[in-house]
Every structure is written in C-alpha cells, then in structure tokens.
Specification:
Blueprint (H helix, E strand, L loop, with lengths): L2 H7 L5 H12 L9 H7 L4 H10 L5 H15 L14 H21 L3 H13 L2 E6 L4 H13 L4 E3 L3 H10 L4 E6 L6 H12 L3 E6 L5 H5 L2 E4 L7 H26 L1 H22 L1
Parallel strand pairs: 1-2, 1-3, 3-4, 4-5
Amino acid sequence: MSIIKEMRQSARFTSTEQQIVDYILKNPEELVNLNASTLALVTYSSPASITRMCKKLNTSGFSEFKKKFLDDLRFNQYTYLTPVFSAEDSAFTTVNKMTILKIMALQEMTENLDYGQLKRILDKISTASQIDIFASSEHMYIAKEFAYYLRTLGINALIYTSTNQRYAQAVMADQTHVAFIINQSGYTKKYHDITQTLRQNHVYCIGISENRYSPLMRLTHESIAIKGQNISKTITNIMFNFNLKGFLDYLFVLLYTTNDEQFEEKNAQLNAFIQAFENHSE
C-alpha cells in the first residue's frame, strides 16, 4: 500500500500523531523544506512523536518517510488529488493537479489510439499532393505549428486563417489533397459546410473534435475524438489544445521516423532552393 493511503486509512495513530498526519496531508508542499524539528514546531508536537509516526508507517525515521511520501505524491497523486481547482489550493497543489491532468489525458489518449487508423492517415499524408488544414481560431497556433513541421519534411501543407480563404480552398481542393478539419465542439456550422464541400470534391477528410458523434465527425473519413477533461470551460479548452498538440506531434514523429530518408532528401532540396533564391535576391 502507498504511504499516503496508509496515512489516510490507519487507525494506529495517537491523537498527536494524527495531528501530524493531518498537517502533512493538508500541506504537502511544505514537507519539501521541513525537517523533523521544524515539523514538530508547526504541529505543536515533538521530534519523538514524529519518529513514532514514521515507524508506524514502516519507515526508519523522518528522512525515509519524507522521501517515500514525496515520491508517492509525485507519481501517484492523481489517486489522492481530485482534479478540481479551488481558490484554497496552494501553488504546489495547483501546479501538480495540472501536471497530473496532463499525464492522465495523454495516457487516456494513448490507450484509445486506433493504430490501424493512424496507419491509414500516415499513408494518405505521404501520398497527398497537398495537406489543407482548417482550424478554429483557438487552435490556430497549434495547427500552424503542425503545418510548419510538415513543411520541414517536404510536405506541402497549407493553413488558412480567414473564412473566405477557407471556403475558397475547400472549393479548389481535389482528390489528391488531404484535409484536416479541427473544431473542438464539432458543431460549428462553417466547418460542417467546408467539410461537405471537401467531400463533394473527393478530398480525404480527417476530423478532430472532442465529440466523435458530432455533425462534423460524421462527415469525415477519419474521426479523431480528443477529450478536453470536463472541469471548467477554460481548463477544458486548455486540455483539448494540449491533447490536440500531442496527437499532431505523434503524427509528425511517425511520419518522420517512417520516411526519414525520403523527407531528408526533400528538405535538402527545399533548403537548396531557398538558399539559391536568397542569393539571387542579393
């Protein structure tokens, strides 16, 4: 059993020892900078009481207890910390709650990846003449970064920022293109309309949304459901973007590692062209 669970469940403590336990569980961040003597002062106890508490938790003394407690908190705190943010949380607790949320989100996304789907997407990207990326404004910076990374591999990737550009590109796209449509809710009408136009032009469409059954996702060839952790609107948006970047990073690394020689050659050609253009401009 973890040491934090033991502290919460044990009935072996005296009233003084329980007071020490309660203080540590309520203020875990303070333990980092405490020794047995200072902990005794803030809990109105004694170093001897702290040592007895530590031994009841199957540790030799305060130093071993402190190490085990902090290790347990660092690696397993999602078991003990509810992922709900409160004004009463310390900075330590808030930062660690956010860290654990991100770890849990990545773990969940990784566990739910469809590797057959990933292979289909990679094959389509590798053979496409152009990658068109349509993203809501709140996801634009992540989408732009993904487009940039694709271009470093020699892949022609374009992203459109204005509504008119998006509609125009959807009309001009053809069956040699692959399109990413990124919209968190999956219910925004303009992205639904853009996807319909792309499908009419036989463009292979990959939808990314938090709702696999949204109108947008029902239109796409491939639907990637990314959860945002339903805590509050702001935190949900942050977590959706975090998972979105994680998924697109996975795609990029898979593309790079499976086609590294081909992409290095394309990238070298592109860099040579840019250098020649710059030299000519001078």
